[in-house]
Amino acid sequence: MREVTEQQILALAPNPAAASNGKKISQKGGFVKLERTQDDTLYMGECTGSGKSNYITSADYIDEANPVFRCTCPSRQFPCKHSLALMYEMLAKKEFGICEVPEDILKKREKKQAKENKENEAAQDISAACKADGRLLPSGTTETVQSAVDRDHGVSEGSGRGAL
To answer: Which positions ≥6 away from 83 have C-beta within 8 Å?
Structure first.
């Protein structure tokens, strides 16, 4: 089971009240169902809420450095108190049943991966174009190709592209 700390939960919380409310939900037994995938990349919970239907919340750790939190509640905070409560359930080492990744989350993962692949390909294309043109941009630079071109041609910021 994935290890989380209270410091991680507090760092992810949009504000102290959300973390406090999430902790209260967990302490009061607000979850009617807890599940996780065998590979520990996805945690899900069904949580009672103020609405007539229970909320379904999840913490997706497919990218461990950037977990994605989802919830069916109407909150506009991310992660919401229900997602934070799910993390408090993990912290408390509550029993999670084993489940498969739901189809909708698989599709979201695929869409995210496709976007990242496209961004990586674009970055490689820019790098290749710069190398072919004799301009090597250092790895990790924030300089854009256009700003490198402007710099090389003596165009100062705000002077307009046509002025040389």
So the answer is: 22, 57, 58, 59, 69, 70, 71
